[in-house]
Amino acid sequence: MENRVVITGLGVCAPNGIGLEEFGKALAKGKSGIRFHQELKELNFSCQIAGRPDIESVDLNNYFTNLQLRGLEASGLIYGVISGKDAWEDAGLHVAGDNEPDWENGVIFGTGMLGVDRFRNAIYAVDSGNVRRSGSTTVIQTMASGISAFLGGMLGCGNQVTTNSSACSTGTEALLMGYEHIKSGKAKRMLVGSCSDSGPYIWGGFDAMRILPRNYNDNPESASRPMSASATGFVPGSGAGALVLESLESALERNASIYAEVLGGEVNSGGQRGGGSMTAPNSIAVQHCISKAIQNADVSANDIDVINGHLTATTKDPVEITNWTKALKRDGKNFPYINSFKGMFGHCLAAAGSIECVGTILQLKHQQVFGNVNCDDIHPEIAKVIDESRIPRKTFQHKSKIIAKASFGFGDVNACVIFRQYSKN
Fold first, then answer.
1. 32, 38, 89, 321: which has the highest count of C-beta atoms within 10 A?
2. Residue-wise burial string across 301-314, b where 16 or more C-beta atoms lie within 10 A, e elsewhere
């Protein structure tokens, strides 16, 4: 017997809201977290705006010990710990005792690059001949698995504790990895999610590629425009999202609140063939990923009520919509409602999938479809294949049962997960 897998805890540290209540309200109201950053202007960035969580009001003593806070510079690690510990608390789970870890609890928490600022400072110290000034915590703040190691130790997890990395699909992939681990009976509970550092050393490469919007530095909240004809590139973002996955049996045993059920999904690659490349998706692979996710979830394409797309506000948005129509064999007014949260906080890179999965689950919880912002001028290629009514501009109540969430990343990698409103049957 394979275990059913449910979601019992959520945590988020996003540019437009930290914590479920603030984040959920921001999504429902279309509140933006994209701001102008003087630092980027001083460094001669063409795009001087970004989405960065405002953690100034967060008491980090609630998340780290004084020793852990000493010399802590890795922003993604901070975001990840905030979201991860919040999700664990939201699930009503305890931290393991001092003598033995909990063998049934694990962590899969992904990232792209971690602790870049810390690494930069360490390099300067070494190059100047002051190796001891590089800091004794440099390694744990800059190794990719630093985030999962921090969370695993803080919570006392004795099952698998690891980090994955697959560009923009990292968070959705981490969720599916945790899902498979519980489904197969290897663990009862898995904390899954992803995080991304913030700052010029993360965003500079994208600015150099000229794929970020350059004409909105004076109007940052209008810059991220998924599915819009006037979209000129994605706005860089950062943050973290976290979800507690649990076997249904375990959740029922402890009378846990259940947000949703994970029905299944798919992860694949286009192999950078058939039009796919390091930066562009292979459309056939995207369609295959979506189709297999639906098949693995044991639902039909017609069961999908809502899609939360990847949709980054680039020239690839119309291609993504076309791929959805082909995979689902649904178009026009028969297409599901679709939204992108990136209009409100930009593209959070490795953290995108997990933050957006949290938002997707909140749609199921509140029985709402969150509105899209900055897309009054729907791209004409999108309008050709789906009816504009399927792209809601305002949040509205909707009795959704099944929502699909997908993420597509650099390297031609894809991930798609299917969520369902929990029912006993």
1. 321
2. bebbbbbbbbbbbb
Q: Are 167 and 112 in contact (CB under 8 A)?
A: yes
pLDDT at 395 over 90: yes
Per residue in 43-93, pLDDT (tens digit) is 999 999 999 999 998 999 999 999 999 888 889 999 999 999 999 999 999
List, in order, residues 6 or more apart from 129 with CB less than 8 Å away.
Answer: none
Cα separation, 281 vs 78, whole angstroms: 31
Does this model's pTM top 0.90? My answer is: yes
CA distance 137 to 118: 9
CB-CB neighbours of 399 under 10 Å: 8
Domain boundaries, the chain: 1-425
116-127 vs 200-208: helix crossing angle, rounded to 10: 100
Largest CA distance in the chain: 66
- b/e code 342-366 from CB counts within 10 Å (16+ = b): bbbbbbbbbbbbbbbbbbbbbbbbb
Helices (H), 297-335: 317-328
> Quick one: how far is CA 120 from the chain centroid?
26
Q: What pLDDT shows up at residue 360?
A: 98
Nearest-angstrom CA–CA distance, 388 and 397: 18
Select from 102, 62, 66, 109 the least CA-distant residue to 82.
Answer: 62
DSSP reduced 3-state for 363: helix
For 408, phi then psi, to 5°, come to -130, 135
pLDDT confidence of residue 117: 83
Residue 79's alpha-carbon distances to 3, 14, 150, 260, 348, in angstroms, are 31, 8, 12, 24, 12
Q: How confident is the model at residue 121 (pLDDT cuts 50, 70, 90)?
A: confident
Q: Which residues pair with 240 in a beta bridge?
A: 13, 195
The CA distance from 90 to 281, in Å, is 36
Write the class of the CATH domain 1-425.
alpha beta
| Contact assessment for residue 391 and residue 338, using Cβ atoms and an 8 Å cutoff | yes
**C-alpha torsion angle, residues 228, 231, 233, 234 (rounded to 10):** -50
